[in-house]
Amino acid sequence: MATEQNEQTQDLELEQTEQQTAQDTEQAEVSVESLQEQLSKLEENLKLEKARTANAVYEAEKTKERLEREADTAKKFALEKFAKELLDSVDNLERAIAANGDEKTALSEGVELTLKSLLTTLEKFGVVVIDTANGFNADLHQAVGIDPNAKANEIGNVLQKGYTLHGRLLRPAMVMVGA
After folding, report:
1. pLDDT in tens, 128-171
2. What one-character-per-residue DSSP string does 33-65 give?
3. Which of 41, 59, 76 is the C-terminal boundary of a domain?
4. Are residues 11 and 63 in the same domain?
5. Strands, DSSP E only, in the chain?
6. Does 84 share its domain with 156?
7. CB 130 within 8 A of CB 161
8. What's the number of domains the chain is made of?
9. What is the CATH number of the domain that holds 86?
10. What is the pLDDT of residues 52-98, one digit of tens each?
């Protein structure tokens, strides 16, 4: 009997060991599957984060470029108010030359040289006289009257020169236009 009980005990222990091994194998399989699932989730998260990072870098570059453009524009047109004020001096020097007529005196030559120097300096910083020879352009010219001697849509008389600063209208040219 003792041997039978020993055999039964051994059989029982063997069954328990086999069951334990089967459970361990199942847990190992479940663990591998769950690990693979976790790995795929992590890979998806990584892809998402890489996309977010790339988007953030792209947005930062665009913002940097926009700020640089705005800074360049601000630099270009920082002189706008100052240049507008100088145009009054240019107009006064031109009126002084026109009032003198054809007489060439030392004073009139000095005024002409001063005007030439001022215009050269303005051109150096992007201030350019508006062309009035190619007909009327409402974007650049301000019609203040009708000139009966001029052809239709042509500029007859320029009352005040206009100027641009780096292509932006600083002051329109005041002109008389043909009807």
Report:
1. 999 888 888 888 888 888 888 878 778 888 888 999 988 888 89
2. HHHHHHHHHHHHHHHHHHHHHHHHHHHHHHHHH
3. 76
4. yes
5. 127-129, 141-146, 155-160, 163-165, 168-171, 173-177
6. yes
7. yes
8. 2
9. 2.30.22.10
10. 999 999 999 999 999 999 998 888 778 888 888 899 999 999 988 88
Rounded CA gap, 179 and 173, in Å? 18
**Phi and psi dihedrals of 165, rounded to 5?**
-120, 110
pTM flag (> 0.70): no
Distance separating alpha carbons of residues 156 and 151, to the nearest angstrom: 8
Say how far apart CA 115 and CA 109 lie, in whole Å.
10
Point out which residues pair with 141 in neighbouring strands.
Answer: 173
Residues 6 or more apart in contact with residue 174 via CB below 8 angstroms: 141, 142, 144, 158, 159, 160, 162
How many angstroms from the chain centroid is the CA of residue 124?
25
